[in-house]
Write a structure and sequence with these properties.
Helices cover 28% and strands 18% of the residues. By secondary structure, it is of the alpha+beta class. Bound molecules: guanosine-5'-monophosphate.
Length: 145
């Protein structure tokens, strides 16, 4: 899948945004959605997507949508840290299949990290139970400023 391929309106995140398939939502506004990664690389792995942009990756996103996305990522990361008390966290963002991207609707990952808990591999983590994700999402949402 080349970096410049056209946007597929039926990619999995577009379908989540349209409510066609379920997702455990943390918070949203008219511009962005934060939801739990269903194959979490660590406990509390959250994804942030734009609701308005059909950018596939960092190269083609409009600056205003990117600004909203990164501000939402920072807001969510603060809540993740407050709620789950990781000792660190990673912000990840993959571009193109060769760059590790698997869903071609631009998104940022927040992956909380603890020194004694190894991070699972990207694309190799087991699927989480929706109830466990909902409980984490509720804790993170309650910690939002
Ligand atoms: P990428 O590889 O594109 O950077 O990240 C895509 C992310 O989406 C992966 O971390 C993967 O676990 C997650 N993912 C894939 N399918 C679904 C899904 O149906 N629901 C949710 N919530 N996450 C998904």
């Amino acid at each position: 899948m080349p970096l410049q391929a056209p946007y597929d309106p039926d990619n999995i995140f577009a379908r989540i945004l349209r409510g066609e398939i379920p997702a455990v939502r943390v918070w949203e506004d008219e511009h962005v959605l934060a939801f739990m990664d269903v194959f979490p690389q660590s406990e509390g792995h959250v994804l942030i997507v734009s609701k308005t942009s059909t950018a596939r990756n960092l190269l083609d996103v409009e600056p205003e949508a990117l600004a909203r996305l990164i501000a939402a990522t920072q807001r969510t990361a603060r809540a993740v840290v407050k709620a789950l008390a990781p000792e660190g966290f990673q912000i990840m963002q993959f571009n193109g299949e060769a760059g590790g991207q698997t869903v071609f609707h631009l998104h940022f990952h927040i992956v909380p990290r603890w020194p004694d808990r190894p991070m699972k591999g990207h694309g190799h983590a087991p699927m989480a139970e929706p109830e466990a994700l909902r409980a984490l999402a509720d804790r993170i949402a309650a910690a939002l400023d």
